[in-house]
Specification:
4-stranded mixed beta sheet, metalloprotease, hydrolase, 6% strand, 272 residues, single chain, globular
Amino acid sequence: MFRRSFSRLYLLGALAFTLGATSSCTDENGNPVLFSVEDDKALGEQVAHQTDSTYRSKGQLLERTDARNARAYQLLDGVVNRVLNSGQLQYRNEFPWDVKIIKDDQTQNAFATPGGHIYVFTGLIKYLDNESQLAGVIGHEIAHADRRHTSRQLQNQYGISLLLSVVLGENPNQLAQIAAGLGQLKFSRDFEREADEYSVVYLNGTGHYACNGTAGFFEKAQAEGQASGPEFLSTHPDPGSRVQAINTKATELNCTNRNVNNSNFQELKNLL
């Protein structure tokens, strides 16, 4: 008990010092970053554990330890690892990076916690047309974690002191609320633009995928209309201008015309 209280006082004291020198704690774009990378990892671990527990209790978490899910994870990991190993991530070696599948065919969404724990709903995988689209959406979510958008958005929404209490395991009710709302977390326009751009950069780095895969997903959703479109669009709005920006970046990098064999992707869809 004493050690935990001391740790909290130490962290809050360090935070007070940090707030007094915010100008020195910024990212490359000049945005304030109060959480350390270790804080990102600790918060992400807590949120991922809570998320796992929530979906496990509903029978919706496809467990990696279940042999019946082994092939599905092998196929999905192949996509994720190509993106992670593109050579373009800032925190490829610092964050743990993993992906889990949530069995919900009605939800077409994906999200990532701080520290790189990625969740993909079966409804999204089944909605997509090809593997480049899947890689694009996953790249977008990886960018939110790798560019530390998620922790920065949570800082804005909940405040640094509350998040530190969650990191220290002192606020389980708030942890449950954060975990429950992560899939609906709305990012700023700048964060979304940056995640789109880095999705293109990551896919280009794979040397494998058509790097405007995310645009293909947006175009399909846009054609179907907002009323019947995927949940992903509720937190990633305005696909029209974003499609143009993604395609412009992809054309600049000359990586739009890669043809990918989609047999593995089709097998993944069939397994789910």
